[in-house]
Amino acid sequence: MQRSGCLKMTIATDSQQPSYQEYMSQISSWFRSISRNLSSALSFLRRTSTENLLLPQHSRSTAISASEVGKPREPVSQREKYLMTCMHDTRYHVKVNQELLREIATDRQLFDFLKAQTRRFRGIPGNILSMRHVQRIFFVKFRLHKGGVAQIRHHKYCCTQQICECIPPQSKVIKPPMGSGEYDCSPSGPPDTWPPVCPEFMMHMYHSPQCIAEDDTSILEQLPKKMHCKLDETTGVPPDGWGLYFQEDIDISTIIAVIFISLFVASLLFFILWTILKDDIQGASGVSAYIVAVASMAGIWIATKSKSFG
Question: What residues contact residue 264 under an 8 Å CB cut-off, 6+ apart?
Fold first, then answer.
C-alpha cells in the first residue's frame, strides 16, 4: 500500500512475520551495541578527567611548595616567649602561670597584660571575696614543683651579698653552644644592683600604665622570658625558673568598708525598729551610735594587725 509523503507501508502476511527467535536476537544485538557505546563513552570521560586532574594539580602544588620554600620564616625566638608569674592562690599556696607573650612590644602593653592576668587569675568574685591585693612586684627566682606550685626563692633569704640569683645567669641567656639560651633578658644576671627595678616603681606602672611612654621598652627587655616552650615539671629535683612574683597583702580598705557598712546598716535597722516598736528615739539612737563606734574600733584594730603575705 502506497500513501502520500513518500511513506511506504508494507503489510506482512503471516508467513512474512519474523519469528520469536529473530526478535530475541535483534534485542540482544541492540543491548550489546548500547553497552559497547556506554563503555566507550565512560572510558573516554574517565581518561579525560584523569588527565585534567593530574596535570594541572601537579603544577599547582609545585608552585605552592616553591612559594612556601621561598617565603622567609619567622624566627622561633620571636614567636614563642613565655612570661612566668607567681601568684597567691591562698596565703601560702603560690602557683606559676606561664603565658605566651603575643604582640607585646612595649612596657605599656606589658603592664596592661599583667593587670588583665591578675583579674583573670581568680575572677572578679574571687578577688572581692579574698579581700587581698597586690602589694609589690618582684623579679624572682623560683622552683617549679608538681601541680604548678612555686617555691619562691626570696632575695633576702636565698641570695648572698656577692651573688644575686633573681635574674637568669649568662649561661641561661647566651645562645648555644656557649650557653643554653633558655631565657631572653638584657642584661643577664647577676644584676649590678638589686632589685633590678624597684617594687614601688613596678606598682606605679601596674596601677597607672597610661603614665608609661608608648615606646618605652626598658622593663620588657630586663624581664626574664622563657624561650621556645613552657618550663616543664619534673619528678625529683624541681627545675629552676625566673619571672615575676606578685606579693600580696590583706586589702585593709575593703575589709574596713565591709565591716563599717554592715554595722551601719544593722544600726539603722535597729534604730527604725526600736523607734516603731518601743516609741523611744533617744534609746534607739544611743544603741545605734554604740554599734557605729564598735565598727570604727574594729576597723582600726584590723589595720594595725594586718601582715603581708610575702
Answer: 291, 292, 295
